[in-house]
User: Fold these one by one.
Assistant:
Number 1:
Amino acid sequence: MGKPRETVMARVLEVRAENPRVKTVYLDFAAKAAPGQFVMAWIPGEGEKPFSVSFCGGARIGLTVAAIGPFSRKLQELKPGGVLGIRGPFGKGFKLKEGKAAVVGGGCGSAPLGFLVEELRRAGSEVVFVNGAKTKSELLFAARANAAGARVIVCTDDGSEGRKGFATDALAELLESEKIDCVYTCGPEVMMKKVAGLCAQNCVDCQASLERFMKCGFGVCGQCAVDGMLVCRDGPVFPLSRLARLREFGSARRDACGSVDA
Amino acid sequence: MVELGAQLAGVELRNPLVLASGVLGVSAGTIERAAESGAGAVTLKSIGPKPRAGHPNPTVLEWGCGLINAVGLSNPGMEAGAREVEEAVRRVKVPVIASVFAGDAEGFAAVAETVAAAKPALLELNLSCPNVMGEHGVPFAYEPGSAAAVVGAVKARVRGIPLVAKLSPNTHLLSGVARAVEGAGADAINMGNTLGPGMIISLEARRPVLANKAGGVSGPAVRPVAVRCVWDVFEAVKIPIIGTGGVSSGRDALEFVMAGAACVGVGSAVAWGGPAVFRRIAGEMRAWMEANGVSSVKELVGAAHG
Ligand SMILES: Cc1cc2nc3c(=O)[nH]c(=O)nc-3n(C[C@H](O)[C@H](O)[C@H](O)COP(=O)(O)OP(=O)(O)OC[C@H]3O[C@@H](n4cnc5c(N)ncnc54)[C@H](O)[C@@H]3O)c2cc1C
Ligand SMILES: Cc1cc2nc3c(=O)[nH]c(=O)nc-3n(C[C@H](O)[C@H](O)[C@H](O)COP(=O)(O)O)c2cc1C
Ligand code: FES
C-alpha cells in the first residue's frame, strides 16, 4: 500500500502579497515536490481544494493563491502561526527537458511557473517566460523569473504593461523567430489549447497543466477525468502527445455532480 | 492452460474482476480505461433521480489501512446518467454494469427504467450506501423487507436485464436480506458496499477530517469482514455473488472465490496501483492457479465450504 498520504496540519510561516489579488502562503511542510505537482489544502469547516506547489525547499512549501471565491479568500486570511491541513503532493509535474524553454503563463495560472522557471534554470536551460495577464496588477512572478535569469516577455490585454495583446501572440512570434525545444504552459484552458496548437504546428514539444474538479486527489473517485485520463494522477501536467488525443481538452469539464459542461 | 473466464447471471466475463461502483466510473472514458487495463467487467458510479453534488470536500481520504469516503452519491441525474451509460455501452468492450440508487422503491424503479433503456449488461441496485443516512434513512440493505421491496419494484418495471442487489456488511440480518432479495427476483448479489460508517479525526485540528464527519471504510482493512459476508451469503442463496471489499492481489481475489464469489469487485486498490491493478491481479490469480493445478476459476467457487 505504501505510505498513506494522510492530512497533516502544517503551520503557516508567512503570508506574502504577490499582487493585489494573489498571495503566497508559506507552510512548515517538508516535501519533495516537482513544479506542477499539487497538494489538497484543508481548512476545517470550510472545505478542501487543490493548489499547486509554488515554492518548495528547506522543509517548507508555498501555495500561491488568487482570491476567487470563499475558500481562496479564507486561505488568504491565514496568519503566521495559524494552521492548514495538507495532503500530497500529488500528480505528475512538469518534466524538465534539455534545451531552450518557453514558459507561458496566463493570469493566476502562473502560480506554479515561477518555481518551474527556477528549476529549469537550475538544470541549465535557457528560459523565456511569457507572462500574460489582463492588466498590469495581475502579472505574477515576472520579477521572480527575471531574478532566476529568464528573459521575460510581459503581455497585458489592456497594454498597461509590456506589449498589448495575448500571451499566445507573443508565443507565436517567439516560435517563428527562435528555436524553442519545449513550451511549458499553465493558465486558462482556451489559452493552453491555443499554445498546444501553435506547438503542434511548429513541431515543438509542449507540456500543459490542466485543472479539473477534484475530490480524492489520488486517482480513485474519477471526478477529475478528461477522457480516460485522471488529472490528479496521470496529470495535472500532460505532454503534447497526450493532449492531442484528449477530446475533452479545451472543450468539456465536469462539476461536483459529474455533469459535463461542454 | 488456466481459464479465468467467469459467468454472472448469464453474462460472460473474460475474467472475474469487476471495477466497483464509484471508483473511476464517473465517465465512459474512465471505465473504458479500466476495461483496457484488464477488468473483466466495469461498473459506473451510482446514478440517482436528480443531479447531486454530494457532500463537500474532504470526501475521500487515505489512512493507515485503507480509504474512507463520504462522496455522498454525487451524480449528474438519471437523464445525463443514462446518456453516459449509453456511451459506455457503445465504447467499452467488456460488460458494463450500471448502478442506480434512490430514496424509495418507486424512485429506484424510475431510475432503473430510465437507465435500463441504455442497455447495460447488468443493472446494480445500490441498496447499501452508508453515506446518505441523514437524507435517505437507514440503507435498504440493512433489513430484509425494505431490500426486497426495492428489488421487487425494479423487477416489475425492468425486463431483460439481470439485476444485481448490492448489499451491506453493516447488518446482523445479512442472511435474511440475501434470501429476501433472491426471493424478490435479484439475479445476483454484490457483497458488498463499504464498512462502517467510520471516522478519522485529526488530532492537531481536533476535528473529524471528512466534511460529513463519518464515511464508508474500504480497502485492505475491510477484507476479512467482506470475506465472511460472502461466506454467509453463499450459504444463504443460490444466485451468484460478486465479492467486494479490500481486494488488492490475486490471492485476495481467490480468497473471495473460495468463500463463494463467482466474480470479484475491485475498488480502492486502484488508489495504490492505478487502473493497471486489474491486469496485475488477474496475472497473480493465473499464476496461483497454474502453480496449484487448477484449470478454471469456476472450480474454486465456494471451495472453502468443503
Ligand atoms: C491541479 C490544480 C491546481 C490548482 N492550483 C491553484 C493555485 O496554485 N492557485 C490558485 O489560486 N488556485 C489553484 N487552483 C484552483 C483552486 O483549487 C480553487 O478552485 C480556487 O481557489 C477557487 O476556489 P474558491 O472556493 O475560492 O472559489 P469558488 O467560487 O468556490 O470556485 C470557483 C471555481 O473553482 C473550481 N473549483 C471549486 N472547487 C474545486 C475543487 N475541489 N477542485 C478543483 N476545482 C474546484 C470550480 O471550477 C469553481 O467553479 C488549482 C486547481 C487545480 C485543479
Ligand atoms: C470513493 C468511493 C466511492 C464509492 N462510491 C460508490 C457508489 O457510488 N456506489 C456504490 O455502490 N458503491 C460505492 N463505493 C463502494 C465500492 O463500490 C466498494 O463496494 C467498496 O469500496 C469496497 O471495495 P474496495 O475495498 O475494493 O474499495 C465507493 C467506494 C469508494 C472508495
Ligand atoms: S480527484 Fe479523484 S480521481 Fe482525480
Note: The two ends of chain B are 25 Å apart (CA to CA).
Number 2:
Amino acid sequence: MTKEGQVLIEKPKESKAKNVGEKTETVEVFIMGKSYKVPAGLTIMKALEYAGYRYIRGCGCRAGFCGACSTIYRKEDEQKLGFDLACQKVVEDNMYLVQLPFVPASKAEYDIDKIVPKDSTIMGIYPEIARCVSCNTCTKSCPQDIEVMKYIQRAVRGDISKCAEISFDCIQCGLCAMRCPADIKHYHVSQLARRLRGKYLDTKSKNLASRLKEIENRKYDSEIEKLIKMDKNEIMDLYKNRKIEAEEEGEGGD
Amino acid sequence: MTVIEGYPDYMLKSIKLCEDKREKNMARPVKPMSMKAREEMLKKYHPDYMEGTKRELKVGKDKGMLLYNGIVDLLESRTVIDSKDIDLSKIDYDVDLLIIGGGGAGTVAALFAYESGVPKDRILIVTKLRHGDANSMMAQGGIQAADRQEDSPSLHYLDIYGGGHFTNKPELARALALDAPGIINWHEQLGVMYDRHEDGEFQELSGGGTCRNRMHSCKDYSGMEMMRNIRDQARNLEIPVLEFCPVAELIMDDKGQIAGGVAFNLETFEYYVIRAKATILATGGSGRLHLANYPTTNHYGATGDGLIMAYHAGANLLDLDTIQIHPTGDAYPEPLVGILSTEKIRGLGAIPLNNNGDPFVFPLEPRDVESAALIKECKEDRGIVTPTGMPGVWLDTPMIEIIHGEGTIEAKLAGEVRKFKRFGIDMAKQPILVYPTLHYQNGGVEINEKTETILPGLFAAGEVTGGVHGKNRLMGNSLLDFNVFGRRAGIYAAKYIKKAKIGKLTLNHLDKFNKMLEQANIKPKKSAPIILPEYRGEMAISRALDIF
Ligand SMILES: Cc1cc2nc3c(=O)[nH]c(=O)nc-3n(C[C@H](O)[C@H](O)[C@H](O)COP(=O)(O)OP(=O)(O)OC[C@H]3O[C@@H](n4cnc5c(N)ncnc54)[C@H](O)[C@@H]3O)c2cc1C
Ligand code: SF4
Ligand code: SF4
Ligand code: FES
C-alpha cells in the first residue's frame, strides 16, 4: 500500500502471485521458443513485459478492445493451436506463444453515401465471401467468441442486418482472416455490413430530427446565454434544485 | 497450473450477504447527497484534496501553478529532443495540416478538414501506435446528447457546468451541449449503430451527475463503434496516416508560429521533419502516468505527450490539479485490476455494496463523489481485500436482471460478460468487485471555442485540452468532446490554412526551455515527453546493458 491507499499492480512482484493460484508460483512460458519463468496469474502481455520485453507493436488498449495483441499459442504435448488476446489471456505452464502484431488484409474502398444496400451489395464489394467452404475455422479462432462463419454466411445471403448484429463485438484482431482457407477478410466485410445497417436500415429518431431543427432556429441560444451570464450563487442554486429524472424513476432509464 | 476460477470462499461469504439483502437494497435505495455532504466527502477521500499528491510548477508559462506531481515531474524534465540533433533544412513531409494523434479527435478533425476543402494529400495524421489504438476505442458506456423532448441543451449545459464544479470555460461547455445532437446525426450518416427502440428512438440511460437520461450507447462498445466508423471513413477517403511515429516535439518558425513537428519512428529510430501550416494536437490523455499511483483504464499510449510538447512551445495549461478517477475499476481478479467496468452497469440499476452487503452511496453521484465514497468505505474497513491486497466493494450486477429481465446483461453488457467469464465469474448471477481507477485527464492545454490555443497555428481537441469539463468531467461527455471539438478543429484549421504563411523553421524554443530549467535551478534526471510507459520487470531492467 502506498500513501494513497493504492496498489499499483502494473508491474507485478514475484510474491504477489502466490496467493492467487492454487499451487504454483511461477510458470514456464516459451516466447517464440525461448524459455522464461514468469509469475503465475499474469496475462500473456504482462508476462512478456515481466520477462523484459518492451512493447512497440502488439499492444494497444491493454483491455480487450483494440485487437492489437492477437496471439497464437500451443501448449506442450497438445495438438490444438490456441488463439487469444495477449492482454486478456492468462499464461499457462508450458505455453509456447507468438504474437501477430499485423495481419495484411486489403480493405475495399467505397463511398458509403453512394451505396444502395441490396441483397447483393456486400457480395459485390467483397466477392470472395462466396468461396467460404464452411470449415468454421474462423469461428474457432475468434477470441471474442463471435460466430464468424455465421456472419459471413449471412453476408453471402444478403442479410446485412444479421451480419451486422452477429459481428457487432468484432475487435478487428485479424485472427479469423489469418486462418481462413478462402482468404476472406471477415472483419472488413462485417464493418461494411454494420455501416450499411446503421446508415440505411435502422429506423431513425424523430426526436433527434426535431431537436436539430430547434437548434438550427436558435431556440436555446438565449436560454444558455442567460445561464452563462447568471451569477455564481444563482446558477449553483439552479443546479442544486434541478429535478433528476433517474431518481424519480428509481432506475437508470431505459 | 494456476487457473483462477470464480471467487475464493471468504468473498463468497460476503456475496451471500449481498444476495440475502438484495430485495431490501433494491426497495430502499440510498438518496443522493446534499451539496455540502458531497464537498465533505471529496475533501476527506478524493486524491485531488489529499496532501502530497501535488506541487507547484517551477518553470515556464504556468510557473506557480499547482499540478499533480507526475505531471510536474515531466514538465520539469529536459526536452526529449536536442535541437542540435535535428536537421531542419531537410523536410520529410510538407503539408497544410499536421494532425498529431490518430484517435477520435484526430480522425474526426481530418474528416472535417477534408470536408472543409483541405485536399487529402495535404493532410497528415501522425500517430504513436496503430490508427485507432486510442482511448476512444475503449469507451464503453456511451455519449451524451440532449435530444429527447423531456431534455434540452440548456439542461445539458447545466449538468456539464455543475458537474465541473462551475470551473469550466462556459463557452466551451455551451459548444459541447449545443453541438451534441448534430454529432449524433453525423454518426447516423456515417453508419454508427446506436441502441434504439423499435420506433427508432434511441435507448437513453442516465449517467452520474446528469439530470435527464441522455446517454446514447452502442451496446458496451460505444467508443469502438464510433472509432471503427470514423476510421473506416478516413480509410475510404485515403487520408494519409503515419503509424508508430509519435511526434516528440513541435517545430516553430521565426515568427513564433507553430509550424509542424518532429516525428520519431519507433521501429527504425529515424526522425522525420514535418512542416505544416496548421497543427492539431489530438494526443489524448495521460492515464499511463499512473498519477497518485492509481492503476488506469487508459490505452498504452496515454502518456500526456501533447501537454509536454505544447508547454515546451509556450502553450498554457488548465485544471491539471484534478484527475478523474472512475469509481468502478476492476479490483478482482488480478489480471483485470484497473480495467474499467462501465458506468452503464450502475445506469442499468446495479448498486455498490460493502462487505456486509449494505448500500452506502447513491449509485449515480458525480464520478469524483462516487469514487470518494468507495474509497471511504474501504478505508474504514468495510471493503473486501483481495488475495493480492487490492481493496474493493461489490457492484451488485444481478440487480439488473431483476429490474430489466433475464438476459439484459448478456444483451447490453456483452463485453463485460466476456471479460469476467474468462475468470469463471458470471456477472448476471454474482456481483463484481470494484475500486476507483485513473480514468481521465480533466484538464490540459487551454483552447477557445475555435479550438485555438494561445500559440498561432496550434489547435487542440479532445482529452489533451482543458476548459471543456472544468475540474470534473461527466460520463459520456468526452466521446462527445472528441467529436465536437475534433470537428471544430478540422473546420477552423482549414480556414486558418488559407491565410497562413510559414517562416523559417526553428527548434529554438527547446533550447530556451532547457535554459529556463537551468535558471530555475532544476536538475532534471529525465527527459519528456516519455512516449511509452515502462512496464518491464525490475529484474530484467536492472540487468539490461546498453551496448547494442
Ligand atoms: C476504458 C475507457 C472507457 C471510457 N468510456 C467513456 C464513455 O463511456 N463515454 C465517454 O464519453 N468517454 C469515455 N472515455 C473517455 C474517452 O474515451 C476519451 O476521453 C476520448 O475518447 C479521448 O479522445 P481523444 O481523441 O482525445 O484521445 P485518444 O482517443 O486517446 O487519441 C489520442 C491518440 O493520440 C496518440 N498519441 C499520443 N501521444 C502521441 C504522440 N506523441 N504522437 C502521436 N500520437 C500520439 C494516442 O496513441 C492515440 O491514438 C473512456 C475512456 C477509457 C479509457
Ligand atoms: S471476427 Fe475475426 S477479427 Fe473480429 S474479433 Fe473475431 S477473430 Fe478477430
Ligand atoms: S474460415 Fe473462411 S472458409 Fe472457413 S468458415 Fe470461415 S469464412 Fe468460411
Ligand atoms: S491490447 Fe487491445 S485487445 Fe489486447
Note: Chain B touches chain A through 128 residues (CB under 8 Å).
Number 3:
Amino acid sequence: MTIPPPIAMLAELTHRCPLSCPYCSNPVQLQGKAAELDTATWADVFRQAADLGVLQLHISGGEPASRPDLVDLTAAAHDAGLYTNLITSGIGLTPKRLDALESVGLDHIQLSMQGTTAGLADWVGGYKGGFTRKMAIAQEIKARGIPLTLNAVMHRHNLDDLDATIDLAVELGARRLEVACVQFHGWAVRNRDMLLPTFEQTEATKRTVAAATKRLRGILAFDFVPPDYYSDYPKACMGGWGSAGLNVTPDGTVLPCHAAESIPHLTFQSVRDVPLADIWFKGDAFNAYRGTDWLPEPCQSCERRDIDFGGCRCQAMMLAGDASVTDPVCTRSPDHGLVLKVLEDAGVARKDGEFTYRAYAGKQG
Amino acid sequence: MILELAPTDRPFLPRGVRVQPDRVRGGMVLLAPEKAIRLDAIGEAILARVTGQASFDEIVDDLAQTYNAPRDQIGTDVQRFLVGLRARMYLGVNP
Ligand code: SF4
Ligand code: SF4
C-alpha cells in the first residue's frame, strides 16, 4: 500500500480555554501551559507539515487565542504556504488582534457557537459573559469581511435552537454553518445523559437542515454531522485512519485523530523527537489501522468497506472495549446491541440537571 | 437563489478561496475554508479564466476556442463546475 501524504493538520496550540464546554474534544487529561511547544517549534512543525503535503492547517486548542504568540504562529503557517483556519470561541480575540491576524494572512475563521442566547450559551460554555463577548467579536469579523464559518455543536439542550442558529449565521454573514451533533468521546461521554438528543429531535434536525439548505442556497452552505448513534452505518472517521489528516497536541504528540489517546495499546511519537514525515509514514500508531487489511468481519466482506473503513476506532474502543472491531454504531456489528443499550439507558436516565464541565485534574494548568 | 450563471455574470473567487500549486503532489489545488480540491486540467483551465472581469459567455468562448471544442458542450461543463462551487460558497458573481 502506498501511503498518501496528509492533506490537513489540526494543531492544538494549547488546551487552555476560558470556556469549559461539557463536550470538549480535548482529552480528559488536559495538558498544562508548561507542556506546550514554544513558538519556534510550532513554526518548524508547520514547515514540516507543508513539506509533507499538508495544505490545510486548522489552528485550534483549547482556545488558540489563549496563546500570546497566536499572530506569530499564524504568520509562520502562512509563510509555510498553508491555508490557515482559526478555530476559536472568539474569547481572547480583540479588534487589534484581528487586524494583526488579517495582516499576516489568516484565511478563515471558524467560530464555535454554544447557543443563540446568553442564557443558553453561557450555561453550556460554563463561562458567564462569554456570549456577549463572542457576538462582539463576530461583528468585528463580519466588518472585516474575514471568511467565517459558524460551528454549532448541537445536543439535546440546544437542538431546538437550530432555527435561531441558522438565522444568526445569516445575520453574521457566515458563508457556512456546520451543524455538528455532539460526538461521544472524552468529556462528552461524562455528559452523555445530558447531551444525547432524542430520536425525534434528530429527525427534526435532519428536516430543518435539509429545508434550510434549499432555502439558503447561494447564501449559506451547510455541513451536517448527524449523531451517529441513530445512524445505520458509522462515519468514515478522519476519511480513514492515517489517510488524510493528523493532529498535533499542545506538547507535540502526533495523533491520527484527536481521540486516539483513548486507545491504550497505541504509543504516540512527538515532534520533539521524530520528524513529522517519519511519524506519518512509519509511526506504529499511524500504521495500526491504516487501510482495510486489518479489518475484521463483517467489514472485510462488506460493500461499504472502502466507504467507511469500519467506522471509528475510538468508538469501537469505548463501546466494545476493543479498537480493532467494527464500530458498534454499525447495525451490522455484532456489538450493535451496546449502542441500543446506551440509547435505551439514556432514555431512562435522561437528566436535566447540571453538566460535568471540562476541568483540569488537580491544579489549573 | 438560482445558482446558474447568466451569460453576462462575471464570476470570481471570493476572499478565502484561491488556486495554488500543490508542490508535493503536483498540479493545482483549489483551497477554500476547510477544503482542498485537486483540480483536473479542465477545472484548472476554467478557474484560470475566473477573474471577476470575464463574463460567463466570454469564459466559454475562450475555452471553446483554445481547446477547439463544441461551445455547447463546454458551456454545460463550465456551468456545472461553477454551480458546484457556488453551492459551497466558493464562488462569487458580479452582475
Ligand atoms: S469545546 Fe469549549 S471548552 Fe473545549 S476548547 Fe472549544 S470552546 Fe474551549
Ligand atoms: S460492516 Fe463494517 S464496512 Fe460494513 S457498513 Fe458496517 S462498519 Fe462499514
Note: The interface with chain B takes residues 5, 7-8, 51-53, 55-56, 58, 81, 83, 85, 107-108, 110, 145-147, 149, 175-176, 217-221 of chain A (CB under 8 Å).
Number 4:
Amino acid sequence: MAVTAQKIRHEYLRHNKKFPHVWCPGCGNGIVMAALLRAIYRMEISKDDVVLASGIGCSGRMPTYLDFNTLHTTHGRALTFATGVKLAKPDLNVVAIMGDGDATAIGGNHFIHAARRNLNLTAIIINNSIYGMTGGQYSPTTPFGSTSTTSVYGHIEHDFSIAELAVTAGASFVARATVYHGELMDRLIEQAMRKRGFAVVEVISNCHVQYGRRNKLGGAVDMLTSFKENSITVSKAEKLSPEELEGKTTIGVLTDREMPISTEEYKKVRERASKTKGKI
Amino acid sequence: MFNQENKRLLLQGNEAIAYGALAAGCRFFAGYPITPATEISEMLATMLPQVGGTFVQMEDEIASMGAIIGASLAGEKTMTATSGPGFSLMQENLGYACIAEVPCVVVNVMRGGPSTGLPTCPSQGDVQMARWGTHGDHPIIVMAVSSVSDSFSITIKAFNLSEQYRVPVVLLSDEVVAHTRECVQLPDQKSIRVVDRIRPSVPPDWYKPYEGDNRGVPHMAAFGDGYRHHVTGLVHDEYGFPTQKPNEVQQFQNRLTKKITRGFSEIMMTKGFMLEDAEIAVIAYGSVARSALKAVEDARKQGVKVGLLQLITLFPFPRSHVSPLLEQCRAVLVPEMNMGQISREVQRVNQNKCVVAKHNRIDGQFITPNEIYAQLIKL
Ligand SMILES: Cc1ncc(C[n+]2csc(CCOP(=O)(O)OP(=O)(O)O)c2C)c(N)n1
Ligand code: SF4
Ligand SMILES: [Mg+2]
C-alpha cells in the first residue's frame, strides 16, 4: 500500500506546481483527491486522456495540483465547461469536482440538467455543508438549526440531499461516501468513471475550520469519527424505517441504471443528418 | 463543404451568420433560444451534424458560454448566439475566455433593452457592454455586421481574429440585419481565408501554455493532445498556475493588452464610401450604415460633399481610421440606435478637430435614410 501510495503521488501530483497546497491541515479535500487518484491508477487511464474540471471553492483548487488536463472554471459552472469538452472530444474521461455550494446553489441548474442530459461524465461533489473558501456562510446543504457566519441565530432553511437530487434529476449512476470511508470512496469513484452515463459521487466531507468549529463538532478527527458512526450502507438502510434513518447518512450505490447517453445518441443524429445534407 | 456553395441564396442575416460560421470552420455551437437570434441556433442545429459538428442547446446562456469555452479548449472552433438578456448572462464566462485566452465567437443580435425591453425591435444598445460588459480590464474584439453578405463574411473574419489572437470576439448584429432577407452569392470555400490557432510545435515537456510568442499570443494545445496543462480564471504565470506576485501579474496583464495593440492594423476594419473629397462624413455601423449609405448617395446627388465610414471593428476602436477623417472634414454625423455609444468614442478621438453631431433613436424603430439625410444637410 505504502509503495503504491508513493507511486501514485509521484505519478499524478504535478512536479512543476509549487506546493504547499491551499487546504487547511486535516481538510477532507485531500482524502477525496487521493481516492480519485487511486481510482484512476487502478483503471490505468493515460493522464493525457483525463480532463479534470472544477468550480470555485476550496474543492475547486484540486485540479491545480494534478497532472492531467485541468480546468479550473468559474463558480458553479464546472459542468458546463465539462459538457463542452466531452461533446467535442467524447473519448476523453471528463471528471468534474465541485463543492456543495458550487454544485447545488450557483450551479444547481447546471447540475440537474447535466443529470438529465446524461453525457458520459463523472461528477464528484465534496459536500462539507458550508461555503468553505469564503469563510463559512451557509450553503444549500447546511443543516436546519446549525450556525454559520450568515445564520448566526440558527439556520432556518432546509438542506438538499445531493445524491437523492441527482437520482431524481435522472443521473445514470449515483453513489455516496464520506471521507471516513476512503476505500469505499475510491471504489465508488472507479465505478462512476467506468459507468457509461452521467455518474455522481457525493462525498460527505469535513470543514472543521469553517463549519465544525462553529457548530462545536470538534476537529477533523472528531468529524471523521462522527461520519463513521452516523453512516449506514444502502442495503442496511433499506431495512430501516424513516424514523430509524433520521440523522443517518446512507452510503454506497443509490442508483445504477442504463439509459441512452447523449454523446452516443448524437452520433446517430449525425448519421441521420448526413442523409439529409442539401435537402434541408 | 456544403452544396449550397457557389449558389445564389436568399438568406436572412441570421442564416448568413450560420453559413459564415461553418465556412470559418466552426464545428461546435451551444446556445439558448432568444429573439431575434434564434434562427442561428436552428440553422446550426440542422447543419452542424451534417458536417460532423456538434450542436447543443444548454439550460441557459451561462451554460452556453461555458460549453463553448470547454469545446474550444478541446480543440474546436466554437460559437454561441444570443440577444441582450442572454448576453448579460454570458458576461462572467466571457471574462473567463478573455483571461484564459480561449478563442470563441459570441454573436449578440441586439434588441431594445434594458431587461426584456423590446424583444422584436432593433437596437444598438449593447455596444459599450460588448466592450466592457465583463468585469476587470480585459482585451476583447467587437465587430458589427450591416447586411446579409456582411453577416457571412464578417463572421469568418471574427473567427479568424479570435483564433489568431486567442481572444473572444463579440459579433454584433441587430434585429434589422438579422431578419432582412437578401440574395447573396456565397463564395467558393476554397477562396475563403480560414485561420486556425497555432498549436505548439515543441515537445510536451517544454510546453509553456501561457508563454506568448513574438506576437504575445501563446500557442494553444487541445485537451487530449498530450500537452497536459492547467487552465484557470485566476491570474496565472506562463505555466498557467495561479500567481499573485506583482511582477508576474503585471507581465501577464501587459501581454494580454499588447497582443491586441500589436495587431491593431489587422484588427481594425472599416469600409470607406465616397470619402476622398468629403467635407462631411457619416460614421455608422450595423444596419444604420446601410441607411447612411443611401443618405450619402442622395446627398451627393444634390452636390453635398459627403462620405461614409462604416465601422466593422468597433473595439479596439479604429482610431487610426477615424482620426484622419476628423482632420479632413468640417463635420461628422454619428447616427446610432442608442444614446451615443460610439459617438462618445468618436469624440474621444476628435479633441475639437471638427464638429461631431449625433443622431440617436431608442424607440425601437430603425434609422431611415431620410432621417440621416435631413441631419446631413443641416451640417
Ligand atoms: C459568481 C461568484 N459568486 C461568488 C463567488 C465567491 N465564492 C467563492 S467560493 C464560494 C463558495 C464555495 O463553497 P463550496 O462550493 O461549498 O466550496 P468549498 O469552498 O466549501 O469547497 C463563493 C460563494 C465567486 N467566486 N463567484
Ligand atoms: S476552509 Fe474548510 S473546506 Fe476549505 S480547506 Fe479549510 S477545512 Fe477545507
Ligand atoms: Mg462547501
Note: The CA atoms of residues 133 and 180 of chain A lie 22 Å apart.
